[in-house]
Write a structure and sequence with these properties.
The chain is α/β, with parallel strands linked by helices. It folds into two domains: 203 residues, Quinone Oxidoreductase, Chain A, domain 1 (Alpha-Beta Complex); 130 residues, 3-Layer(aba) Sandwich (Rossmann fold), CATH 3.40.50. It has eleven helices and 18 strands. The strands form four sheets. Strands 3, 5, 6, 9, 10, 17 and 18 form a seven-stranded mixed sheet that branches. The longest helix has 12 residues. It is globular, with a radius of gyration of 20 Å.
Length: 348
């Protein structure tokens, strides 16, 4: 079968590999219909390289059941499915406490076991479930990043009538904007230096867009909020500077959620750090997209909101390409040869 395999930093190859086979009776083999490129994929491509050299890559996808093990009863060959790529052990202390996102042995397909940038892939039965007909393949490929975004917002006390600022309008930031609207936020601020990303943010539900190239995000947000700040500030850019600046955006008693991952050291100026103390902020990290009972409300809520049309991810999708063009599109994304939102790959 066709697959994309990552061998090293900048070394992605389109190759023929053997398709997966059933080894355990609780496994499901899936024919991949659509797979999305995650921002973490691009970071690993240009900075970190693979966990295991030559691993089949990718973790955001949807597909159709091809084969099931003998113990699998909730899906059958031919079923369209949603797929959670996070593999948890279910045995460590966090798992037993009902916090699988903190699993001591958590891994994700595409890192230490073959991923979804291929014609076929494999997951445990607990990680797949039937997909409603109302959700298209393109939409279903974004269920996982949607679950990542709402996982972070579930950590907060955001309520109807509240306000939220999103610092960084990549895919997770854009989904956070739409989830803020679904949580009932009255005002959502989108912050980014890319005008095209800000344009998509408006389509996703942002009320106010802020470009810090004109004036700092902090100064502009304070002007918009009469010097009060917002109830919740989300850091989804993953840059060292925004990881500090986000601390100055919430109001007194407000909240900060870190969803982005900076791959450099973060130096926090005294002014930004003092906001934690002086404003008595609550600061959260948000990792992965699962809760108990596994895979969690992040997934069931996303399915419901997509099925009913309340969650609309279509404005985010900018490219639909065959899998064989995956090597080239990663280079194009790295060198910013076009505006890239969510890129979907389709195995032949």
């Amino acid at each position: 079968m066709n697959a994309l395999k990552l061998y090293g930093v900048g070394d992605l190859r389109h190759e023929q590999v053997k398709p997966p086979v059933i080894d355990e009776e609780n496994e499901v083999i899936i024919r991949v219909k659509a797979a999305g490129i995650c921002g973490s994929d691009l970071s690993r491509y240009r900075k970190l390289g693979p966990y295991i050299e030559g691993m089949v890559w990718g973790h955001e996808f949807t597909g159709v059941v091809e084969t099931v093990g003998k113990e699998v009863t909730h899906v059958s060959p031919g079923d369209r499915i949603a797929a959670c790529p996070a593999i948890v052990c279910g045995k460590c202390e966090p798992c037993l406490k009902g916090v699988p996102s903190q699993c001591m042995n958590l891994t994700v397909m595409g890192s230490r076991q073959p991923g979804c940038f291929a014609e076929f892939t494999k997951l445990p039965a607990a990680n797949v479930w039937p997909l409603p007909d109302a959700i298209s393949d393109d939409m279903a490929a974004l269920i996982e990043p949607s679950a990542v975004a709402v996982h972070g917002l579930y950590r907060t006390d955001l309520r109807p009538g509240g306000s939220m600022a999103v610092l960084g309008c990549g895919n997770i930031g854009l989904l956070s904007i739409q989830w803020a609207r679904l949580f009932g936020a009255k005002t959502v601020y989108a912050i980014d230096m890319d005008p095209e990303k800000l344009s998509v943010a408006k389509q996703m539900g942002a009320d106010v867009i802020i470009n810090p190239q004109e004036k700092s995000a902090y100064e502009q947000l304070m002007e918009y909020t009469d010097q009060k700040g917002v109830d919740v500030a989300v850091e989804s850019a993953g840059s060292p500077f925004t990881s500090a600046e986000v601390l100055a955006l919430p109001c007194k008693g407000g909240e900060v959620v870190f969803m982005g991952i900076p791959y450099e050291g973060v130096r926090i100026e005294r002014f930004f750090f003092e906001r934690i103390v002086r404003n008595e902020l609550r600061v959260y990290g948000s990792w992965n997209a699962v809760s108990a009972p596994f895979p969690g409300k992040e997934w069931t809520t996303t399915l419901h909101m997509m099925r009913t049309g309340q969650l609309n991810v279509r404005p985010m999708i900018t490219h639909r390409l065959p899998l064989r063009e995956g090597v080239q599109v990663f280079e194009d994304m790295l060198h910013k040869r076009d505006f890239f939102g969510k890129v979907l790959l389709y195995p032949e």
